UniProtKB/TrEMBL annotation:
Superkingdom of this protein's organism: Bacteria
Species this chain originates from: Paractinoplanes durhamensis
SUPFAM superfamilies: MFS general substrate transporter
Keyword Cell membrane in record: yes
Name this polypeptide is given: MFS transporter
Membrane topology recorded in Swiss-Prot or TrEMBL: Multi-pass membrane protein
Entry keyword set: Cell membrane, Membrane, Transmembrane, Transmembrane helix, Transport
Amino acid sequence: MDEMLVSAHSQAMTLLATRSQREQRGSARHGVAFWLIAAVFAVSLAFSTVPAPLYPLYQRQDGFSSFTVTIVFAVYAVGVIVSLLLAGRVSDWAGRRRILLPALGLEIVAAVLFLTWPALPGLILARFLTGLGVGLITATATAFLLELHTAHRPSAGRARFEIVSAAANLGGLGTGTLVAGALAQFAPAPLRTPYLVFLILLALSVAAVAAVPETVIAPAVRPPYRPQRVRVTGSALVPAAAAFAAFAVFGLFTSLAPGFVAGSLHHPGRLLAGAVTFLVFAAGAAAQSAFRPRLRAGLLTLAAGLVIVAAATQLTSLALFLTGGALAGAGAGVVFKSAVGATVAASAAHERGASLAGLFLIAYLGLVGPVLGLGVATRTVPATTAMLWFTGFLLTLLAAIAVLDRFRRS
């Protein structure tokens, strides 16, 4: 009898040990997957900013005006918005991988178009497809990273997720401009080589997504499809407005700023054009990682940066422009991180993708609206005057956000 009890106890311990080993292996697999998806997120967003330092080359090749550049940029943002509206919530029930794979496919098709059809119609179509892909990726990859982080470290806080997702998002956006600017400066075929490099990276990203585990359990009954609804309640008004303002700043530095540096500031180097945009996004990512997301501090830093950028445009000072851009980027990074944090904290797990999609939708409206207005303004007034108008609009918006946040907290 004792031998039977000992044998049963031994078998139970063996089963528990086996289960523990399986759980540890599963956890380790989710840990590897976390870093793979972070890399995929960074690559996909880096690809979206590759054209930024190349716009002056396109302008010289095809005679683009600054207004045409803003139209091309706006088409990208429209693609993001359409994608978020039509499929922003789908990954909550279809699965994260099932959305990321076709999204990366859209970016690969866009890369092929950039390589084979460099004329204006091809550029517009490629940017629209890029926007569709990014719209699918942003909310999906952010939710995916949080779920993989939780599966890997269930008892840990969200600090690692917040830092890595911020670095993949803003760091990826900035890295794309820096890599493209360097390749355009030093490599042959400046309007082809950057896209070829990222085509290879996107193909590797597809393989990475195919290898990671899924984190969404498909429901037994598929919910009825409906487009993403944009609802800005009282509690969501401040995060939505903050995301709008942050992306308006990022939009400026990925559309007209490279041309402004080459034209008004008389520094036409492609590496410098990419470095200016990289500086803004790198400052945003660094500020997100180094500081707790305090909205008021972010708003003040962003406002100070915008004032310095406006002064630099009047004084035609590159040093001031870079200083203001770094401050504005840091402030925008903190502001956007606080908006994402507030949205995630207020969202149930089964609605996380939809909530983030709604936030990114508002953010990308900020990306396209003010910048398009700035492009229209440059047709009738000097670029320096248009930049002053842009600064005034954003400073007014930041003041309104600060007032609303104070009332919300009181």
